[in-house]
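User: Please check C-alpha cell order:
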Amino acid sequence: MIDDTELLDRAEALVAAYAKAGRTIVTAESCTGGLVAGLLTAVPGSSAVVERGYVTYSNEAKAEAIGVPIDLIRRHGAVSEDVARAMACGALSASRATVAVAITGIAGPGGGSAEKPVGLVHFGLALRDGGRRHLERRYGDLGRGAIRRAAVADALGLLEGALAD
C-alpha cells in the first residue's frame, strides 16, 4: 500500500462520500497492481463502498477476469484508451458495483517505446447508469514509484468526479 497522508485523506473522504451516496466501487488495475483498492480498503468502513478489486496485470488476466477481448488488446495494445475503457466496463459487468475505475500503463523502468513511452497511463471510468470517461496521462519517466503514485491520485480524481454524476 502507498504510505501517503494526502492520498489516504482523499481516500477517507471518498469512502465517506460514496457511503453517504449509497454507491460502490470496483477497481481494475494493471500498472498500479491493486494500489487503488489497497488504499481504499485501508479506510475503516470501506467494506460498505469497495465491492471488489481486480489486478489484471497480464493480457490473459484482462481477458479472463473482466472480459477484455484479446483481439482488442492485440489491435490497440494493453496500454490504450480502448483497453482502459474495456477494463472499466468489464469490471463493472463482472461486479455489483455502481462505479468502476480502470488503470493500464507503463510504469517502467523498461517497456516503453517512442509511441508508448514510460509514464503513459490510460484510465477508464464506467458508471452503472451508462456514463463513461477516459483519461490519458503522460507523466514522463519519473520512476516507477512516482508514476504509480500519480496514477493512484488520478484514479481517485476520477472517482471523486463520478460523485457529481
Q: What stands out?
A: The two ends are 29 Å apart (CA to CA).
